[in-house]
From TrEMBL:
<dbReference type="Pfam" id="PF00135">
    <property type="entry name" value="COesterase"/>
</dbReference>
<keyword id="KW-0325">Glycoprotein</keyword>
<protein>
    <recommendedName>
        <fullName>Carboxylesterase type B domain-containing protein</fullName>
    </recommendedName>
</protein>
<feature type="domain" description="Carboxylesterase type B">
    <location>
        <begin position="577"/>
        <end position="720"/>
    </location>
</feature>
<feature type="domain" description="Carboxylesterase type B">
    <location>
        <begin position="752"/>
        <end position="905"/>
    </location>
</feature>
<dbReference type="InterPro" id="IPR019819">
    <property type="entry name" value="Carboxylesterase_B_CS"/>
</dbReference>
<dbReference type="InterPro" id="IPR029058">
    <property type="entry name" value="AB_hydrolase_fold"/>
</dbReference>
<dbReference type="InterPro" id="IPR002018">
    <property type="entry name" value="CarbesteraseB"/>
</dbReference>
<dbReference type="InterPro" id="IPR050309">
    <property type="entry name" value="Type-B_Carboxylest/Lipase"/>
</dbReference>
<feature type="domain" description="Carboxylesterase type B">
    <location>
        <begin position="38"/>
        <end position="537"/>
    </location>
</feature>
Length: 963
């Protein structure tokens, strides 16, 4: 199967704007002429007078612009739709109404069009019917990146379906852009208004379509691009499920990466900021909602453009959001999880793609300026284009491009193939396989097809701005189903194109009327038994080997299994992210589960003693929003090699799920910290059964994991922890505190001097202050404190993940972790007998010494840290490479020689550092001692922290409900 990719994205938006610019060049609706007296229908909603059209071949009745909801204006802006209250007399349905307010942000200078008063639908019925029975109904939802397009007959004309005479067609408008999809994350702006509009239209159809001769018990819901994603979402909505009976998805799914849910609350604030709303950062969501309602609709339309990053990326800038369990909520869970777990009503499904979906990105390879910009920042742009985590960018590019990733004018087809696979083909494959896991396919079959029929007209000319041929692009199947006179001429009769249109429409009508999509007689049903390697799928194409003017349908089950494996790894993190973690990584496809509170216990088999072993409980970092205890991140091998400790790693709730706090008992907050505490209680009660000593537990963590430990030392925390620590209100315990030499290179997108400043402010200075305050109260003979800095530099570094580039910027934040743990998800394990493995041995032995005996002394002459030895500050150890001796010999030595320019900010500190000396052997692992600190730096940050005109520790800042 060729790469399937979903293009709702650019297609819808760019089409609309361009159409406005070139309307006169394409419009030819002369075939639409009044045919007879105006048709009249009295439905449940009221009486309606439409218009009879002559059509291309056969006449039909058209009822344009029927209102199905109250105009969502004024107080109803950003609110759930309200059913239309009806009207007296006859509603004039002889002309189409405005489309929903929009702009094509994918085409420069595209006009703004439409109105907020736009919730109308069109009903088309054939005059010459094949049967007197009620006709099956097709309800069609347009695409357009949730930001453009409409039900206008210039885009979706009914002629081809009306010529068939077997179905009634309904097309509809729904709110778009921020007007349709802004979401605050609470009930202030509930969100998903566009989807709720669609649902309201479905309710109207269910109640009224019988008056037009339609069968309300035989409704097929179809859509293309984001319209297809919408249809998929309706399959998982308990209200919508009862309103239709079959589903047709063209070039889109709800589990496509471009439809992934985003942090709606953050986007809500970002839009408020971009629109310069009053107190956008601190105002309540209800206040901001009031301001959004008072602003001109034009401002909301224009604000969509502020959400793009590069060349209309992300291609779907506004999306559905997860709502709370409130009245009228449309989507309360991640649809990927709902679908994967089979929580949907089974219905017959048709799902299709085009051969070259991702050529909607054609402006990038074909525009020299955009291509150069792409090549200059390829590892920063590709994750946004494909909606993947930056860590996978190189792997994906290697798979498709080999070792030459840049676009050069000869590899554009590969670029499109990559996008088609990721955004369309792979989601279709996943949807089908998951459906087969639950569905009764004898009763509710699934059909797959690929549209490969190429002709001279294509949406590519709108995507690229050039009249070029790049295959069968996203949306290129639409003008075989609908007349699209705004954009393209109607096919001449008795041409290959018109014959393909006949075949395609007949296949659709067969599905709408009878639930079957079989243009080819030998097409096998798709079942779990026939899905290896993949189900049969039909291909709509030309018969090239004999007569290229012959439109045919063939069958294939070919699929690129290596492509599927690649995207499975990206989606599910094979050897990477555990499905039981609590990962909520920003901008990455969501992973994990709310059911995630698990821990791992590792114990050595060959022990050095029969006594119970001391225990290390490790809390991972990740900004309180990502990572987990997965052994792919924190493997136990180095500690197990030592055989002296038992290791426990744990998950805790992350992101807003773990740390949302209301300031009162409504949402008490700190759930992630409380999870950690619960895990500690479990260890205390259970670890002895694993051979662990519950009376000898060391709690360790890195980054926010380290911050968590500091908080556990002060638990319960009912005030600002800075105040508690400064006043000595903590339980004294032996402490080790460490940093790396270049912590802030996680901000590797900024300059070196700024990075140094961030290291001082966020890591070095807090460490200095922490130690000084500890010494004011602690009995350091009983509860010593040890400090170190890790500066052992090697070729692998987290910087490549922070920056998206394979560059060397020193020893970054987290770069000490892969000496303590195997991190096979991110880095290879060190080869035996290398400088790196020797440093790992030294580092782990130092840690084990602390865990088992409460001492962190890699060097025998390391002085204890006391108030007497802390002027200007305590000794600190230096672990580094040694250049003057045998590079294959791992030793520990003492030195006060160090690059003063590099570490002058430590000018008078005496604390443990793992550092790098430029005069020593880079292949030699060592430990040395220094006592240097930059006192000017300390004075500066003292002033910032304690300045009279800054933040008073006594200010009313919510400290009593510190969260």
């Amino acid at each position: 199967m060729k790469p399937y990719f979903c293009v709702l994205i650019l297609c819808g938006c760019s089409i609309f704007a361009t159409a406005q610019q070139n309307f006169s060049a394409h419009v030819d609706d002369s075939f639409r002429k009044p045919f007879s007296s105006a048709p009249e229908v009295c439905a449940a909603s009221g009486c309606i007078r439409g218009k009879s059209e002559s059509g291309r071949k056969k006449p039909y009745d058209a009822f344009y612009g029927i209102p199905y909801a109250e105009p969502p204006i004024g107080k109803l802006r950003l609110e759930n739709p309200v059913p239309h209250s009806g009207w007296s007399g006859y509603w004039d349905a002889s002309y189409a109404r405005d489309n929903c307010y929009q702009q094509n942000f994918h085409v420069s200078g595209a006009p703004i069009s439409g109105s907020e008063d736009c919730l109308y639908l069109n009903v088309y019925r054939p005059i010459a019917r094949k049967s007197n029975k009620k006709l099956p109904v097709l309800v069609y939802i347009h695409g357009g990146s949730y930001c453009a397009y409409s039900s206008d007959p210039g885009y979706f004309g009914p002629e081809y379906f009306m010529e068939n005479g077997e179905v009634i067609l309904v097309t509809l408008n729904y709110r778009l852009g921020l007007i349709g999809f802004l979401c605050s994350g609470d009930e202030a702006v509930k969100g998903n208004f566009g989807l709720k509009d669609q649902q309201m239209a479905l309710k109207w159809v269910s109640t009224n379509i019988e008056y037009f001769g339609g069968d309300a018990s035989s409704v097929t819901l179809a859509g293309q691009s984001v319209g297809a994603a919408s249809v998929h979402l309706h399959m998982m909505n308990s209200v919508s499920q009862a309103l239709f009976h079959r589903a047709m998805l063209l070039s889109g799914t709800a589990i496509s990466s471009w439809n992934y849910l985003i942090d709606s609350a953050s986007q809500f604030r970002q839009v408020a900021k971009n629109m310069e709303l009053r107190k956008w950062e601190t105002a309540s969501t209800y206040d901001l909602a009031y301001q959004f309602k008072k602003r001109a609709a034009l401002d909301l339309v224009l604000a969509v453009s502020t959400l793009f990053i590069f060349a209309a990326t992300p291609p779907v800038p506004v999306r559905p959001c997860i709502e709370g369990d409130w009245e009228g909520a449309f989507l309360t869970e991640d649809p990927r999880k709902v679908w994967a777990e089979g929580r949907f009503v089974q219905k017959p499904i048709g799902i299709g793609v085009t051969t070259d979906e991702a050529t909607f990105f054609s402006s990038i390879p074909t525009n020299r300026t955009l291509r150069d910009a792409y090549n200059a920042n390829i590892y920063g742009i590709v994750p946004g284009l494909l909606e993947i985590h930056p860590r996978y960018a190189t792997k994906v590019l290697d798979f498709y491009f080999g070792d030459k990733h840049e676009l050069d004018g000869t590899n554009s087809k590969t670029f499109y193939e990559m996008g088609t696979d990721r955004l369309f083909y792979y989601p279709v494959i996943k949807l089908v396989n998951q459906y087969l896991s639950y569905a009764n396919v004898q009763k509710n079959p699934i059909f797959i097809y690929e549209f490969s029929f190429e002709t001279t007209q294509s949406f590519v000319k709108y995507y690229s701005g050039q009249d070029i041929n790049l295959g069968v692009s996203h949306s290129d199947d639409l003008f075989y189903l609908f007349t699209m006179t705004t954009l393209f001429p109607i096919f001449e009769v008795d041409t290959p194109e018109s014959r393909m249109s006949d075949i395609y429409v007949r296949s659709m009508v067969n599905f709408i009327a009878r639930g079957e999509f079989k243009a080819w007689r030998t097409f096998r049903p798709c079942t779990q038994q026939t899905s290896t390697p993949f189900c049969d799928y039909q291909i709509f194409d030309r018969y090239m080997e004999s007569d290229p003017d012959q439109a045919i349908v063939s069958v294939s089950n070919e699929i690129n299994l290596e492509m599927v494996k690649l995207w499975d790894e990206v989606d599910y993190g094979v050897n990477a992210i555990s499905l039981r973690n609590c990962d909520d990584s920003e901008n990455e496809k969501l992973s994990g589960s709310e059911d995630c509170l698990y821990l791992n216990v590792y114990r050595p088999i060959a022990r050095k003693s029969n006594k119970k072993l001391p225990v290390l409980v490790y809390i991972h970092g990740g900004s309180y929003c990502s990572y987990s205890s997965d052994p792919g991140y924190f493997g136990p091998e180095y500690f197990m090699d030592n055989s002296e400790v038992i290791l426990v790693t744990l998950n805790y709730r992350l992101g807003l799920i773990g740390f949302l706090c209301s300031g009162d008992e409504a949402v008490k907050g700190n759930f992630g910290l409380k999870d950690q505490q619960m895990a500690l209680k479990w260890v205390s009660t259970n670890i002895e059964y694993f051979g662990g000593d519950a009376s000898s537990v060391t709690l360790a963590g890195q980054s926010v994991g380290a911050s968590s430990i500091n908080l556990h030392m002060m638990n319960p925390v009912s005030q600002d922890p800075r105040k508690i620590w400064a006043e000595g209100r903590f339980v004294q315990k032996p402490i080790v505190i460490g940093i790396t030499s270049d912590e802030a290179t996680y901000a590797s997108f900024i300059t070196t001097n700024q990075t140094l400043m961030i290291s001082d402010r966020m890591f070095h200075y807090p460490t200095y202050k922490f130690v000084k305050q500890y010494l004011n109260y602690a009995n350091v003979q009983k509860n010593p404190i040890f400090i170190y800095e890790f500066s052992f530099e090697t070729t692998q570094s987290f910087v490549k993940y922070y920056s998206g580039q394979d560059i060397n910027l020193g020893v970054s934040h987290s770069d000490d972790l892969f000496y303590l743990f195997t991190m096979t998800t991110l880095f290879p394990i060190f080869e035996v007998d290398t400088p790196e493995s020797r440093m790992s041995d030294i580092y782990v032995r130092s840690m084990v010494n602390f865990i088992a005996r409460g001492e962190f002394k890699a060097w025998r002459t390391f002085r204890p840290c006391t108030q007497e030895t802390s002027t200007p500050f305590c000794d600190y150890q230096v672990f580094d490479r040694y250049t003057e001796l045998d590079p294959d010999q791992a030793i520990v030595s003492v030195s006060n020689e160090i690059n003063f320019e590099m570490v002058k900010f430590w000018d008078k500190i005496d604390y443990g550092v793992i550092n790098r000396s430029t005069k020593l052997d880079p292949n030699q692992a060592i430990v040395s001692i220094s006592y240097q600190i930059n006192m000017d730096m300390v004075k500066l940050w003292d002033k910032v922290d304690y300045a009279v005109n800054a933040i008073s520790m006594r200010a009313s800042s919510g400290a009593d409900t510190y969260c």
